[in-house]
Structures are given as structure tokens and as C-alpha cells.
Amino acid sequence: MPIVLVQNSIIVNAEYDWKDIEGQQYHFPNQYKNRCTPGTPFIYYRGTRRLNGKRGTPEYFGYGRIGEVWRDSSISESLPRRNWAWYCNISEYLPFVTPVPAKFEGKTLETIAKNHWSVGIRDLSQEIFSKILKLAGTAYTADDASINFPDLALVRIEETDEPLLVPHRLAGGENRPGYPHARYATNATPIGNRAEEIVHKFLIDRADTLGAKNIRWISRDGLKPGWDLQYEDQAGEVVAIEVKGTAAAIFASIDLTAGEWRAASSLGDQFWLYLVACCCGIEPIIQRIRNPAILLESGLAALTPVVYRFSLTVQEVSDRSPTGELP
Fold first, then answer.
1. Max mean pLDDT range (227-236, 249-258, 295-304)
2. Which of 48, 63, 227, 253 could bond 179 through an S-S bridge, CB–CB 3.0 to 4.6 Å?
3. Whole-angstrom distance, CA of residue 42 vs CA of residue 45
4. Phi and psi for 68 in degrees, rounded to 5?
5. Best CA proximity match to 213, nearest among 237, 185, 194
6. Are 106 and 73 in contact (CB under 8 A)?
7. Under 8 Å between Cβ of 16 and 84
8. Domains of the chain from N-terminus onward
9. pTM given for the model
């Protein structure tokens, strides 16, 4: 059964200062553990309170699936279970281009008690789940997500110096068992392609400022040297750009292939990471990171192997080890 995740813009009471990161993770008390399970589809909801004391229309503003769930280890296991809390990853997150008001044709879309609108996680019928997605202009099935990107001509790209890749400790701490692998999500490919499309537009629009000539979108041409786009700088040297995109406002982590990291290590200052947040909307945000390899060398970044592919190098393998002993 689908669920609703309440994600308010501001924290009214310090007691409810949950460590949520929109589109990346959700932090919740033990009472909701049985509702928030891996694979469960959800819709984000926010109430009237907004930043700077403003008020807005209660609305639904995005959807996705619950990823892995893990216990908040900052709370002692010796405490009663009712005092525990949990984290979950958010996977396949897509914001609505236009949020859906909680009221439609004079009636609330959810038929619930008045005091239940603030409940952090609540059940949602499949019928209302589908209706909200339809009102948002989003097609959805259990196996696929159809993404309606706005016309690229309407997109306003903003570059920021603020970090879009948040430090590990802000995304769940050392108790976190692992990061979600976004490239395995059903919508990873269209989001990745859209991020590259946004960066391509960014390079063309700012070619004079960047000193960029002969801009090429090489991944679109089927080339995979370890980066997605490239251009020649004023000295005629190739500048390589690897693009990472997310529908969320920030990244908890990014995945790099072995080939991408080799390219980053060998190219040094000629290799850039372009992080594109909010890449499904009309106001994507780009952060450019030059020479990520040097960040690793200086201790400002970490590189963690999360997947190893195992395969055999010979046609047949004996059930004994090379020494003749059973393994």
C-alpha cells in the first residue's frame, strides 16, 4: 500500500527535528516502522507553514519509493523499542513540476481526521495515490516511472558555490549501512540523460565565459572514455566533464565507475564533476567541482568501493583450490 511522507519546510518544535533530506532520506519514530518498508511507493506532503514565516497551500509535491531502512544508532538499544527511531533511503524520487493542492474541487483528496494531517507517515489508498499522480501530470505504474520534463527552452540554470554533495555525517552518520545506488533505479537513465542535457545547454550558453570551444556531448555519441562532455580551453587542451544528476535538491553521495575515476586521477585539473540538482524542474542547480582526485588526496573526500563484479577467467573450475585442498 502506498504511503504519505510529511516533509514540512520548517521545524515548529525541536522535539520533531527529524534528520530528513528531501529526495534522499527520511528519519522517523518507531511507531511508523511497519508502514515504511523497502519498496513502498510514497507521495510527499507539506502543510501550510513555509520559510520566513510565510504560509502556503497544503500540497503534495513529489513521489518515489522507500529504499533500505536502518536503525538510528544514536538511540541506545537498551531503551524501550518505542523510543527507537529509524532512517530510510529515498529512491526513484521525482518532484512534481506543479504541486497538487490537498483540496480538489472543494474536497480534500484524503479522507482522514483533521488531526491526522500532521501524522508523519500515513497510509494512502492506491486509488488516491493514482489520482494525485494523474493531477500532477505524472504517469506511474508499479514497474516504471514516466517523466515529463519541461521544455529545455524554459529551463533557467543556476550555478552555485554552495555544496550540493552533503558530507556523510549529515546523511545519517556512521550507523548508515550504505548509500542507495541510484543507477539501478528505474528512472536513473532518464534523469542522468536530462542532467547531461542541462550541462550541454549550460556550456553553450556560457561558452565565452568558460573559454570553451568545440563543445562535444560525447556520451550521446556512444563514446565512454570516462566522462560525458568535453570542450577545448583557450590553450587547446581538452576539458573533461562527468555529469551526475538528481531530482532532489542535494546529493548524499554519487557513484563513479572505475573508468570515471581513472579519468579523474589521470586528467587532474582538466577533469570536472558537474553536479546537477533539481534536474527534473525548470530551475536546476549546478555545482562544478574541479579535480575531485585531489580532494581525495587531501582528505576532503572519501572513495568507497560499493560493488565488485565477480566472474570466472576459465571455462571450468574444479571444486578444489589450486593447492588441491577443498576450499
1. 227-236
2. 253
3. 10
4. -70, 150
5. 237
6. no
7. no
8. 3-143 (3.10.590), 149-327 (no CATH)
9. 0.70
Report whether 132 contacts 60 (CB < 8 A): yes
Pairwise CA distance, residues 158 & 138, whole Å: 25
CB 42 within 8 A of CB 62: no
**Cα distance between the two ends of the chain:** 45
Strands 285-290, 158-159: pairing is parallel
27-32 mean pLDDT: 94
Q: Are 233 and 240 in contact (CB under 8 A)?
A: no
Q: Burial level of 17, CB count in 10 A (0-12/13-18/19+)?
A: exposed
DSSP per residue, 49-77:
B-GGG-B---EEEEEEEEEEEEE-TTS-T
DSSP, residue by residue, 265-322: HHHGGGEEEEEEESTTSSS-EEEEEE-HHHHHHTTSS-----------SSS---SS-T
Strand partners, 21: 25
DSSP letter at 145 equals B
H/E/C letters for each residue in 27-51? EEEHHHCCCCCCCCEEEEEECCECH
pLDDT digits (tens, 9 = 90+) for 126-163: 999 999 998 987 754 444 446 778 889 999 999 998 88
